[in-house]
What does this fold into?
Amino acid sequence: MPAPSVWNDSLLANPHAVADKRQRVRRMFAAIAPSYDLNNRLHSLWMDQWWRRRAVQLAELKPTDQVVDVACGTGDLGMRFATALDTLGPAAKRVVGIDFTYEMLPIARRKSQLKPLLLLNGDALALPLADGSADVVSIAFGIRNVSDPAAACREFRRVLRPGGRLLILEFSLPVNPILRGLYNFYFRRVLPRTATWISGDKTGAYKYLPESVNTFIDRSAMMGMMKAAGFGEVRQVPMTFGVCVCYRGLVK
Ligand SMILES: C[S@@+](CC[C@H](N)C(=O)[O-])C[C@H]1O[C@@H](n2cnc3c(N)ncnc32)[C@H](O)[C@@H]1O
It folds into this structure.
């Protein structure tokens, strides 16, 4: 039976303010999981993998780092961390990937057979991890989807030990108004049609994507949120004209 619609135009005026955003987000990702990777690659012209690689570089991994990739989806960032840790020596630990949409995890498991991840079905707002148990926490294209991003940042801070790093990869919009207008034409008018056609999606996932980016907190608010959660030396690294930003914060 096809998945019923999750988003309509009135909810998409500000999807972050929708009371049951959490349940809607989960239903949406469960429905698009099988075609998620293909749409990512095609609609970013394969740049999504480069953005993830940059996030791994900014984590400045050490051989014994314990890495937790939250909202891991189909495992792309976790696998990049696992590959990078492997190059650092035999002491490397297994990367933990956590996502609250169960349907994403079998895909991640299949893809990561050569670089196994420890995959858990769990929530960014209540990570199944002890205080101070991780050296790196990452979240790629996930923070915008959680119902309470500030609470998620506090949860990331809780599980990180001193010296730990938080890496947040998230879509943003070009600062230049002409570039922003051109990008939004593609993002709001073209991508929803082509991505919906490729996935056969009925939930409105690819209308939610541009609207959730356009209505999400801006870059300075994101950095303020990380600081308020207890992170220091917070910085942003914009990529590809600012359509994607990697934020990094440290635990002193
Ligand atoms: C856009 S996908 C990103 C997946 C992956 N990180 C990547 O780079 O492709 C967002 C993911 O966030 C997950 N997610 C959203 N809210 C979550 C939450 N509160 N806890 C755990 N996962 C969540 C969704 O299930 C989905 O798999």
